[in-house]
Amino acid sequence: MYTSGKYSSRGPALIPRMKTKHRIYYITLFSVVLLGLIATGMFQFWPHSIESTADWTLDKRSVHDAPLIRLPVSSPIPERGDLSCRMHTCFDVYRCGYNPKNRIKVYIYPLQRFVDELGVPISSTGLSREYNDLLSAISDSDFYTDDVTRACLFIPSIDVLNQNSLRIRETAQALAMLPRWDKGMNHLLFNMLPGGPPDYNTALDVPRDRALLAGGGFSTWTYRQGYDVSIPVYSPLSADVDLPERQPGPRRYFILSSQTAIHREYRAELERLKEENGEALLLLDKCSNLSQGAASARKRCYKGQVYDYPQILQESSFCVVLRGARLGQAALSDVLQAGCVPVILADSYILPFSEVLDWKRASVVIPEEKLSEMYTILKSIPHRQVEEMQRQARWFWEAYFSSMKAIGLTTLQIINDRIYPYAARTYEQWNNPPVVKWSSVNSPLFLPLIPPRAPGFTAVVLTYDRVESLFRVITEISKVPSLAKLLVVWNNQNKSPPEGEKKFKCPECTAIDGLSLDQTHMVERSECINKFASVFGTMPLKVVEHRADPVLYKDDFPEKLKSFPNIGSL
Amino acid sequence: MQAKKRYLILFSTGACLILLFCLGGIQVPLSRRGPGRPHDRRLSGYGPGARWRHLSGYLQPFSSWEQDRSDDLTEHISPRQKRDANSGLYTGKRCRMESCFDFSLCERNGFKVYVYPQQKGEKLSESYQNILSSIEGSRFYTSDPGQACLFVLSLDTLDRDQLSPQYVHNLKAKIQNLPLWNGGKNHIIFNLYSGTWPDYTEDLGFDIGLAMLAKASISTENFRPDFDVSIPLFSKDHPRTGGEKGYLKYNTIPPYRKYMLVFKGKRYLTGIGSDTRNALYHIHNSEDVVLLTTCKHGKDWQKHKDARCDKDNAEYDKYDYREMLYNSTFCLVPRGRRLGSFRFLEALQAACVPVMLSNGWELPFSEIIDWNRAAVIGDERLLLQIPSTVRSIHQDKILSLRQQTQLLWEAYFNSVEKIVLTTLEIIQDRVLLHTSRSNLMWNSLPGGLFTLPQYSTSLRDFPFYYAKLGIKPPSKFTAIIHVVTPLVSQSQPVMKLLVAVAKSQYCAQVIVLWNCEKPLPAKHRWPATSVPVTVIEGESKVISSRFLPYNTIPTDAVFSLDEDTVLSTTEVDFAFTVWQSFPDRIVGYPARSHFWDSNKERWGYTSKWTNDYSMVLTGAAIYHKYYHYLYTTYLPASLKIMVDQMSNCEDILMNFLVSLVTKLPPIKVTQKKQYKETMMGQSSRASRWADPDHFAQRQTCMNKFANWFGTMPLIHSQMRLDPVLFKDQVSILRKKYRDIERL
């Protein structure tokens, strides 16, 4: 800027020495330069350019380096959240725009530490490990943008995963202070543990205007279908425990209950089921002799016998996931990881990612009231289906539950699918485990249509230089009434194709006719098949023992009355 | 001149420098100014616009185990009390199945629907009459309110537009007087139109209480998920049963048609919903995007007429709606006064991919239909992007969208009956939660109405999904031999048949269905075979019992046989290997055909040797066990009773059913025509085939069936499947199925 300034100051002094024609020329050029300068200046004072700079600070950052923001008591509080919000009413699509990749851009606010006027933080935990993982995963993904002006979705770095650790009013004030908050429009909050005692609301109690909520534990009454996203409650065991996938099949126990905080009414009900069905059920509880702490989270007991959790989950076909104070339970994640089919008893619960996942293929949902009939209901499920569900459960965990990254990116993909529905991922993409994706056949022409004869067909004849046989084919095929068009592909660069009706005599023809019998030819074709199969990774060809013939083929019946009398004479 | 050059260079360098500044040099001045501006800092927070980075150092987990436990252990309200509280709390606009529906009514008798008797003097519109008769003709119907799980009013609630002549007055009082109303609990109310000019609200003008709504043009705001059902708007001419087929006859590749996107309809100059259609002209290009509107509707259109009206009206008259509909790749479906419009079903039927432009419309049957597979969901706010959006859709996707329109049209929309049955099935799926259809069952062939989850909830147990799941059809079958004559000699055809079938390498089990009046013969009288033979007595000895889904059938494949069928083991083997390639169809030997007898104006049945066939009789045919279940539960009692009384036509009915489901003909294998020893009628036994009335009856059956189905589902085929080397001039030793040739 300064160097250019130097030139511009020297410019005018030189002008008088020139001819008028040139002077005008230079004045024009000069004003262009000046305008450019002004524009540059303007550009810099524009706030977005400040935010859009590339990172240039601190690689090794820690939470304590984040700037401290003091919230005035009178700071505005957002509105509670509108239950009638939908994408077309509360979401600004213009921010997302048309883009050839059909991918939304997501901006993450830089980290700040909010405190009230007395200096007390708004959250007891601050940024949690999980939220940090989530934000990092998003920032490493294709969704991420550091350019706030191009963003379609905004994610605050204020951690609201667990409502218990939040001061509700202050958190809300902090949200409202975000520079692009704008009534929460296009903001996405992640919450896994909503509500608090005694009522345990099923959605985050922090007032949040129009912000979208990715919540773990929505009920049908708080979930805004097509707006909010129902997410799982992340289980910390996902990262700590490595459970190898087990082959689907029968397990030692039929039903297992491993949750430790089950309401006594339900525990009594489960005990009753256990009495009726004996060994098929395993009812675990916390171990009374173990001290509290992380270690006790990994043990379960039944009558003094200690079991490893979550490993024991792999020993059962079905695992009960009952509602607790909240609808969303981290146990669901453990159960899926173990490849155990979850039996979900949580009335009105919106299952995680239910917008895209077909839970009927991976779980059994039973109304709480029917807990006593659980055994009978589960027994009626065919074995084959149980095995399929076991596989599906494990796949759901791997793809959508296993890490904060999986949870976060799935949430963004769901929102992305809503904004670009015509480019949305398909049901098969969401729900088919890789083994099915590989082996299944989804024909692009899946509709059974019996086309009319009228449009006929086009014959495509590939030829090299066997003109004689080409003409023979053409003569024969042009007799067919349904032939609409005949296309000859001349596959010989050295010769030009015969013109019009001219007849050729081709001496080599007879020699080449024996081509298909040639031994090397067969070997080559076998090699082709092997090559193709290895590229495809599988052999897609199927062997059948039947062939199609006309109904009256070879029948002792007047040929005149047959639709296709000449079949077989070729 | 030298000087001029110098200045030129100087200025160019200056300009270049400035340009460089604009593009990339911003951080220099910024870094200098940054710290001095606290306001900016607040705006951008921690480090101006720094990219989010994973933070190092110890962070606490978001929840601790102890805390979770203490949360859950707080003696929260008893679950039972909580449930009871919900039902009092969440009513009206917040109704859900849990809070407003009494599941206990459905427990004893399953999902049964009661229709109130029609009251004298109460006029019903044709559409509503069609809805009621569809329910009454369905398998869900019960005439006993004590058995019912769901109640349907016989008061016409379809048109709640006060200005409409169909509007029923005093509905509120009439409903309150119904003895079974019970506050609307377990009732479903059908509605097509609500509200009136100018705002067209979704108010029905009476209190629906706890009743569910099956409503057209319902908005997401008013739609109670998992409680209401969004139904399509259909006209009074919509057929009751049968229904028209989709217009797609064959696929074209590339899939583009003459027009890319079309629309032809009214434009509302004022009032609700007018904005969308008023803006359409922006993207109309009169070439491949043709969006036409007319102002000419209503009495006083001239009054509100705007500057574009005359031009628009003139353009409007130039195009034929049908021509556009059939020749366009996409069809715009913008909202009208109400959110839904007739355009939607018209486009669907015409295989013109609907481009929805109706923000907030809860699409028909959204609970079960994955509309992204068949339509483009646009946003009214992004109208100007619509052309580029539809142009960006890949050919393959268009091909798939187009086929899906046809699938959905024929599965759920082409008759009032389908719309009503879909509504009921959706509710049934909610009631019988753990036996409900998965998304795949609803959205792939043959559709949810033919995929009954009461048979199985596993996709593997149906004949439709093998390829989709990447699994092979089963490798074994069960033979069911239908026996009606007593056992007198060991050389009886049935004995030979039993031995031949049991010898098949694919046979897992033989079941003899004893439908003979004589008592069961002793066990030792049946020939010894390597596979187990089970003899079961037919239920009340009626012919339909051959299609009961017996639990004793261990395999998915059923080889259905008449007692006098003559088949060799080779033929059995071959038929089964063919079936493995076509597991959803009937594969077998005796082929028959139907034809339209234009003199008598009725369907005819023929067993003559013809060039085509449309039925393969179940006297020697193999098919999936699921069709037994479908035959028994899907078909109405009236047809089954008719079949049983005549002891005839059960095989025709089965062919009707399978073709209705698959939309494909059955498959005849090999040359063999005669499959019974007694065909020629020399038999002394009372074979039903020898009866002269038998044939006439079959004609009658065909017409009765076609009448009930509302359409003729049978499809002709000219193809028969033979073993690959069949009658080829190669050594017989090279042929696998030699016996077939010798016959």
From TrEMBL, chain A:
<keyword id="KW-0175">Coiled coil</keyword>
<dbReference type="Pfam" id="PF09258">
    <property type="entry name" value="Glyco_transf_64"/>
</dbReference>
<keyword id="KW-0812">Transmembrane</keyword>
<protein>
    <submittedName>
        <fullName>Exostosin glycosyltransferase 2</fullName>
    </submittedName>
</protein>
<dbReference type="GO" id="GO:0015012">
    <property type="term" value="P:heparan sulfate proteoglycan biosynthetic process"/>
</dbReference>
<keyword id="KW-0808">Transferase</keyword>
<keyword id="KW-0256">Endoplasmic reticulum</keyword>
<keyword id="KW-1015">Disulfide bond</keyword>
<keyword id="KW-0472">Membrane</keyword>
<feature type="domain" description="Exostosin GT47">
    <location>
        <begin position="101"/>
        <end position="381"/>
    </location>
</feature>
<dbReference type="GO" id="GO:0005789">
    <property type="term" value="C:endoplasmic reticulum membrane"/>
</dbReference>
<feature type="coiled-coil region">
    <location>
        <begin position="256"/>
        <end position="283"/>
    </location>
</feature>
<feature type="domain" description="Glycosyl transferase 64">
    <location>
        <begin position="457"/>
        <end position="499"/>
    </location>
</feature>
<feature type="domain" description="Glycosyl transferase 64">
    <location>
        <begin position="501"/>
        <end position="553"/>
    </location>
</feature>
<dbReference type="InterPro" id="IPR004263">
    <property type="entry name" value="Exostosin"/>
</dbReference>
<dbReference type="GO" id="GO:0016757">
    <property type="term" value="F:glycosyltransferase activity"/>
</dbReference>
<dbReference type="Pfam" id="PF03016">
    <property type="entry name" value="Exostosin_GT47"/>
</dbReference>
<dbReference type="InterPro" id="IPR029044">
    <property type="entry name" value="Nucleotide-diphossugar_trans"/>
</dbReference>
<dbReference type="InterPro" id="IPR040911">
    <property type="entry name" value="Exostosin_GT47"/>
</dbReference>
<keyword id="KW-1133">Transmembrane helix</keyword>
<dbReference type="InterPro" id="IPR015338">
    <property type="entry name" value="GT64_dom"/>
</dbReference>
<comment type="similarity">
    <text>Belongs to the glycosyltransferase 47 family.</text>
</comment>
From TrEMBL, chain B:
<comment type="function">
    <text>Glycosyltransferase required for the biosynthesis of heparan-sulfate.</text>
</comment>
<dbReference type="InterPro" id="IPR015338">
    <property type="entry name" value="GT64_dom"/>
</dbReference>
<dbReference type="InterPro" id="IPR004263">
    <property type="entry name" value="Exostosin"/>
</dbReference>
<keyword id="KW-1015">Disulfide bond</keyword>
<keyword id="KW-1133">Transmembrane helix</keyword>
<dbReference type="InterPro" id="IPR029044">
    <property type="entry name" value="Nucleotide-diphossugar_trans"/>
</dbReference>
<dbReference type="GO" id="GO:0005789">
    <property type="term" value="C:endoplasmic reticulum membrane"/>
</dbReference>
<dbReference type="GO" id="GO:0046872">
    <property type="term" value="F:metal ion binding"/>
</dbReference>
<feature type="domain" description="Exostosin GT47">
    <location>
        <begin position="108"/>
        <end position="393"/>
    </location>
</feature>
<keyword id="KW-0325">Glycoprotein</keyword>
<comment type="pathway">
    <text>Protein modification; protein glycosylation.</text>
</comment>
<comment type="similarity">
    <text>Belongs to the glycosyltransferase 47 family.</text>
</comment>
<keyword id="KW-0812">Transmembrane</keyword>
<keyword id="KW-0735">Signal-anchor</keyword>
<keyword id="KW-0479">Metal-binding</keyword>
<dbReference type="Pfam" id="PF09258">
    <property type="entry name" value="Glyco_transf_64"/>
</dbReference>
<dbReference type="InterPro" id="IPR040911">
    <property type="entry name" value="Exostosin_GT47"/>
</dbReference>
<keyword id="KW-0808">Transferase</keyword>
<keyword id="KW-0464">Manganese</keyword>
<dbReference type="GO" id="GO:0015012">
    <property type="term" value="P:heparan sulfate proteoglycan biosynthetic process"/>
</dbReference>
<dbReference type="GO" id="GO:0001503">
    <property type="term" value="P:ossification"/>
</dbReference>
<protein>
    <submittedName>
        <fullName>Exostosin glycosyltransferase 1a</fullName>
    </submittedName>
</protein>
